[in-house]
Amino acid sequence: MRVVEDPVERQFPKATTHIPDIEASEWAQFKRTLNRASCLLLHLSEGVDDKAHLAFKALQNSQGDWAISASLAGIYCTGLQPEDFAVSAERGGSMVWSPLSNLLLYGGTTNVTAARSAGVPISLGSDWSPTGSKTLLNE
Fold first, then answer.
1. Confidence tier at 8 by pLDDT (50, 70, 90)
2. Distance linking the first and last C-alpha atoms of the chain
3. Cα gap 104→107, rounded to integer Å
4. What is the pLDDT of residue 130?
5. pTM reported for the whole predicted model
6. DSSP 14
7. Which stretches does DSSP call E strand in 28-99?
8. Per-residue pLDDT tens for 47-101?
9. Does residue 1 surpass a pLDDT of 60?
10. Are the C-beta atoms of 68 and 86 separated by less than 8 Å?
11. pLDDT over 70 at 2, yes or no
């Protein structure tokens, strides 16, 4: 285990994070940030409602370009539909799944079957202390 935002070992790239949802007006700036990042952790589509799903749709601009690449790892992704996972996989995106936190916060969790079927790489996370497991083994 390591701290991805401040790795001690030089061989590991530093990860950056983006917590709030992307707004349409922020798309170009977010895309530039993503293009410079080796890994960008984005809290993506938190929740199981339409608003959460729209947060994913905001990663596409009006010309149809996506701010998704191999540098993007979406945390949560509970609002994504099967076709969204296909879009993410086509562009090299990955996700971090925190099932206990999803269940406690939203009463549901990410459709990991759809994510796996689409070919999205999935890692396991324990989220934060109030709702997540204390260790990955507990998760």
1. confident
2. 15
3. 6
4. 74
5. 0.85
6. P
7. 40-44, 72-76, 94-97
8. 999 999 999 999 999 999 999 999 999 999 999 999 999 999 999 999 999 999 8
9. no
10. no
11. no
CA distance linking residue 76 with residue 124, whole number of Å: 10
3-state DSSP call for residue 78? coil
Q: Indicate the domain borders of the chain.
A: 16-124
Q: How many CB atoms lie within 10 A of CB 16?
A: 17
Burial degree of 46 (CB within 10 A; 0-12, 13-18, 19+): buried
Assess if CATH 3.40.1790.10 describes domain 16-124.
no
**Selection from 52, 120, 51, 56 nearest residue 85 by Cα:** 120
State the pLDDT at residue 137: 78
Average pLDDT, the chain: 89
pLDDT score of 132: 75
Q: What is the dihedral of CA 125, 24, 37, 2, to 10 degrees?
A: -20
**Cα separation, 89 vs 93, whole angstroms:** 6
Residue 126 and residue 98 in contact, taking contact as beta carbons nearer than 8 Å: yes
Handedness of CA 29, 35, 38, 40 (dihedral sign): positive
Q: Counting beta carbons within 10 angstroms of the beta carbon of residue 5, is it exposed (0 to 12), middle (13 to 18) or buried (19 or more)?
A: exposed
- Residue 84 in tokens: 């969204």
